[in-house]
């Protein structure tokens, strides 16, 4: 290939794809896809970037036009059951979630945020244009940047969720089109919507952030991660071993890696059984890898799709896994939320946070964003652990303003070891104006999930060297210290009923009122104002002619 | 002498035959060429709207998706289709087969497919948004995929389905659009030169009432039933539990499945779709505002995106250098088409 003489060196870009398959304790199977593109370029420079290769152009234009520093958007269908499935590699709340850090050169953050949500709604075919000031908050302590960035002025952070947002093939289609190989080669051929949406949990996300390329952070590059997490449930429970294969899960097998990928790997979690007694994976592989993920050292069988021998003589890879389900490590942090109370006037929100560590306590940051039509009474806020009052060391509360902004409550709570901490707050339901109701108001109104962020103590020493070659699933959250790892847990969204008027009422009232007015008032009016006159019957023809002659003569008529 | 005369006579007859043949074929070429440029449009757009919410209105979403599928198959790209679905049936929790929408109880045809882009979904499908899309009066931050960027040489197909009555169409069980509003919206489009020709198809009860008030030129309208008649649904599926499609659109889909991009079927064939024996209601149509003869309007003029290729004999000079962004100079031998981004 002839080198093209040009004054500007071509920026380096790199694409990696990986799939992690992890059988879960409940018999379900968890598959997590990650596609990462790294590009050494600067969107914020004066020159506009014009030549895109692996990085999708639509997202590059969004970053430069709206001066975005970090963008995280996820679309989730289903709720992650932490107690049955453990911790996910990448947590996400049901519905759509979007949080963005803007560059500090942006002057009007709210205006830029509104335009950004509209553009993203076009790119992902989602109704993100419903994100406005009534469901956007500015967290003061949660959602610190996940990429590099010294500035933590929270004026440039915006967070919003749409718990009602539906995820279906129309969101998957544009997501797949952002990949360099599309859905034509590599791991993305497995992404068939009929199988992916027939699952217990489906979540697709896009994460964009600047990262360091080396230890001293002399060069930075932009990282785009597209992730897809899906949990398939078991259809044929039987005795003995449970069996899964790629073809059964995705109705396709793999034939090649994406030619543009520098690395294309499949990891199968075989930690529970290194000897191979409980587990059976075929075709067998001798490649093993260990990784520190979610506070635990896990062992994985690795299949490298860039090597031709992985596909064998049949030129197709169909992984078959047989295993016996075993006990699961209890997750250290777990949360639930529900609405208590009765009637359509008042209620109470209860959030429970479980610390399952036997002897360590750790602090968690709870973020609650409640819409304005549930008026919270903050003086009734109580935080109790083991029956005793537990005063949070940091509370940030921004009250709501009707039809302008929602409630924002952030608290730093220390969870004692092996305990349940309960946060309760009472609220009153507001009556909306009749034009503000959705077309189906009897369904109820959604309140977005609470977010609990925490540094959880880990059993094994975590790896803090961020530039070493690590599998993608273990390098998403930056690890700053060895003794703990970062975890984010989302609670369930709430569905509350608001007092709903009878929408047929105006029509019925108009009919009834008009009838009453017409019959009642009309009759009365006639009775009072009508006067009666006696009228002669009309005379016969002869009499009429006689009257005419008498008029002509000037004589009074008969 | 006789032989020579005979020969010249033969040659003359041959020549005259050849001449008439040539003139006949040249007339044919001219006729073909004339037909080539007769419709006058250069691009195609489609606005497909389903206005019903709730699971038991599955058939309205299936109606819209089947027209979407046909239109895409015949060549109109996603960037030129504005698809509005008021509710989600494919990933609805009541759907026993997620990510599918079927048109027939045999479940052969998944009209939802694997490559679908819905531009307006859920609560966004309102009368106001629909009229704004038609007239182009959208807020400045609306993305391109949600706009109808047609010009005066666009042929637009508009398909509406849902529950309707005499003179109105119900949106999401909470608001209505009247036939007067629709006629005025089309007049606005005509004044702003937003269409060349417009085909309006409606599949609702008493659908003919919706096109009674049109008064702008170049409109052709089809409806599934006359005023006073109900449009009926086709057949239910016992596994899914609801009616899968409406009769008129079912037979329309059957008709369109036989159309391919080079098909010569015209509008008169479309008027014959779903006679009373199949549809139970009487489909109606209106062509008095359409300036061309409906028999000369091809189905692919509205449902497909058949590009006209104009041959030119002019030469264009490409040897001047074209400056590139990074400062290097190419020899201009590559032609960069005006970009149509994703």
Automatic annotation (TrEMBL), chain A:
| One matching Pfam family | Gpi16
InterPro entries noted in UniProt:
PIG-T (IPR007245)
Q: Which domain of life is it from?
A: Eukaryota
One Gene Ontology CC term in the entry: GPI-anchor transamidase complex
According to its UniProt entry, the protein's GO biological process terms are: attachment of GPI anchor to protein
Q: What is this protein called?
A: Phosphatidylinositol glycan anchor biosynthesis class T
UniProtKB/TrEMBL annotation, chain B:
> Which UniProt keywords are listed?
GPI-anchor biosynthesis, Signal
Asked whether the UniProt record includes Magnesium among its keywords, one would answer no
| GO CC terms | GPI-anchor transamidase complex
Family membership: Belongs to the peptidase C13 family.
Organism (species): Cyclopterus lumpus (Lumpsucker)
What is this protein's name? Answer: GPI-anchor transamidase
Give one Pfam family.
Peptidase_C13
**Residues at the catalytic site:** 163, 205
Q: Which InterPro entries match?
A: GPI_transamidase (IPR028361), Peptidase_C13 (IPR001096)
Q: Name one GO molecular function term.
A: GPI-anchor transamidase activity
**Domain of life of the organism in this record?**
Eukaryota
Q: State how it assembles.
A: Heteropentamer. Part of the GPI-anchor transamidase complex, consisting of PIGK, PIGT, PIGS, PIGU and GAA1. Interacts with GPAA1. Interacts with PIGT; this interaction, via a disulfide link, stabilizes the expression of GAA1 and PIGK and links them to PIGS.
Gene3D superfamilies under this entry? 3.40.50.1460
Residues in the signal sequence: 1-24
| The protein's annotated pathway | Glycolipid biosynthesis; glycosylphosphatidylinositol-anchor biosynthesis
Statement: the UniProt record of this protein carries the keyword Signal: yes
């Amino acid at each position: 290939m002839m080198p093209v003489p040009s004054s500007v060196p071509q920026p380096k870009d790199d694409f990696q794809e990986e799939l992690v398959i992890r059988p879960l304790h409940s018999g379900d199977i968890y598959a997590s896809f990650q596609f990462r593109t790294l590009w050494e370029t600067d969107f914020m420079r004066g020159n506009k970037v014009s030549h895109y290769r692996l990085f999708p152009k639509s997202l590059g234009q969004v970053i430069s036009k709206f001066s975005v520093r970090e963008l995280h958007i996820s679309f989730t269908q289903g709720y992650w059951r932490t107690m049955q499935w453990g911790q996910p590699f990448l947590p996400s709340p049901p519905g759509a979630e979007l949080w963005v850090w803007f560059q500090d050169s942006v002057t009007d953050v709210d205006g830029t945020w509104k335009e950004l949500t509209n553009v993203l709604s076009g790119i992902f075919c989602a109704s993100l244009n419903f994100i406005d000031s009534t469901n956007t908050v500015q967290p003061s302590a949660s959602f610190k940047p996940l990429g590099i960035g010294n500035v933590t002025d929270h004026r440039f952070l915006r967070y919003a969720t749409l718990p009602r947002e539906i995820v279906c093939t129309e969101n998957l289609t544009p997501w797949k089109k952002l990949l360099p190989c599309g859905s034509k080669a590599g791991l993305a051929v497995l992404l068939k919507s009929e199988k992916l949406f027939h699952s217990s949990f489906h979540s697709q996300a896009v994460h964009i952030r600047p990262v360091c390329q080396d230890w001293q952070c002399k060069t930075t590059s932009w990282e785009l991660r597209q992730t897809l997490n899906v949990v398939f449930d078991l259809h044929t429970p039987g005795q003995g071993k449970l069996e899964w294969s790629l073809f059964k899960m995705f109705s396709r097998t793999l034939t090649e890696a994406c030619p543009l990928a520098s690395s294309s790997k499949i990891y199968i979690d075989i930690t529970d059984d290194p000897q191979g007694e409980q587990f059976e994976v075929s075709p067998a592989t001798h490649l093993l890898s260990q990784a520190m993920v979610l506070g635990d050292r896990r062992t994985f069988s690795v299949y490298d799709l860039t090597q031709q021998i992985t596909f064998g003589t049949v030129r197709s890879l169909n992984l078959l896994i047989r295993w016996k389900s075993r006990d699961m490590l209890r997750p250290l942090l777990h949360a639930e939320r529900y609405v208590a109370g009765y009637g359509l006037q008042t209620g109470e929100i209860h959030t429970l946070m479980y610390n399952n560590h036997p002897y360590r306590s750790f602090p968690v940051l709870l973020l609650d964003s409640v819409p304005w039509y549930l008026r919270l009474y903050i003086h009734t806020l109580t935080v109790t652990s083991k029956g005793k009052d537990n005063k949070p060391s940091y509370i940030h509360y921004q009250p709501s303003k009707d039809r302008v902004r929602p409630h924002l409550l952030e608290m730093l709570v220390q969870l004692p070891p092996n305990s349940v901490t309960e946060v309760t707050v009472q609220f009153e339901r507001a009556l909306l104006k009749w034009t503000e109701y959705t077309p189906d108001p009897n369904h109820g109104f959604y309140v977005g999930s609470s977010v609990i962020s925490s540094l959880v103590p880990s059993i094994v020493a975590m790896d803090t060297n961020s530039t070493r070659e690590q599998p993608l699933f273990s390098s998403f959250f930056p690890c700053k210290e060895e003794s703990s790892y970062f975890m984010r847990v989302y609670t369930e969204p709430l569905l509350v009923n608001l007092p709903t008027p009878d929408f047929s009422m105006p029509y019925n009232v108009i009919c009834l009122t008009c009838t009453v007015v017409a019959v009642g008032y009309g009759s009365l009016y006639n009775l009072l104002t009508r006067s009666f006159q006696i009228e002669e019957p009309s005379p016969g023809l002869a009499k009429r002619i006689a009257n005419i002659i008498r008029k002509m003569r000037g004589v009074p008529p008969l | 002498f006789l032989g020579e005369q005979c020969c010249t006579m033969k040659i003359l007859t041959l020549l005259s035959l050849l001449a008439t043949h040539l003139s006949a074929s040249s007339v044919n070429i001219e006729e073909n060429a004339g037909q080539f440029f007769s419709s006058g449009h250069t691009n195609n757009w489609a606005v497909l709207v389903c206005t019903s919410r709730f699971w038991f209105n599955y058939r309205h979403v299936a109606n819209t998706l089947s027209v979407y599928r046909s239109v895409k198959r015949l060549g109109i790209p996603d960037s030129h289709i504005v698809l509005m679905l008021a509710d989600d049936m494919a990933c609805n929790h009541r759907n026993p087969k997620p990510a599918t929408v079927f048109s027939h109880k045999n479940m052969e045809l998944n009209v939802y497919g694997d490559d679908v882009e819905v531009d307006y979904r859920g609560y966004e499908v309102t009368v106001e948004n629909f009229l704004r899309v038609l007239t182009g009066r959208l807020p400045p931050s609306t993305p391109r995929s949600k706009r109808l960027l047609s010009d005066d040489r666009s042929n637009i197909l508009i398909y509406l389905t849902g529950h309707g009555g005499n003179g109105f169409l119900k949106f999401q069980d909470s608001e209505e659009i009247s036939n007067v509003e629709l006629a005025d919206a089309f007049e606005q489009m005509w004044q702003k030169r937003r269409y060349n020709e417009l085909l309006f198809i409606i599949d609702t009860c008493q659908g003919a009432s919706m096109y009674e008030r049109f008064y702008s030129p170049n409109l052709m309208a089809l409806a599934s039933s006359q005023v006073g008649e109900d449009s009926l649904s086709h057949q239910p599926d016992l596994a899914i539990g609801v009616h899968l499609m409406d009769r008129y659109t079912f037979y329309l889909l059957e008709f369109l499945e036989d159309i391919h991009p080079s098909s010569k079927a015209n509008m008169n064939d479309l008027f014959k779709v779903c006679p009373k024996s199949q549809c139970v209601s009487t489909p109606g149509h209106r062509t008095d505002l359409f300036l061309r003869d409906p028999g000369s309007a091809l189905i692919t003029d509205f449902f497909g995106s058949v590009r006209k290729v104009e041959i030119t004999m002019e030469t264009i000079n490409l040897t001047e250098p074209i400056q590139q962004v990074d400062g290097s100079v190419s020899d201009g031998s590559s032609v960069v088409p005006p970009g149509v981004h994703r």
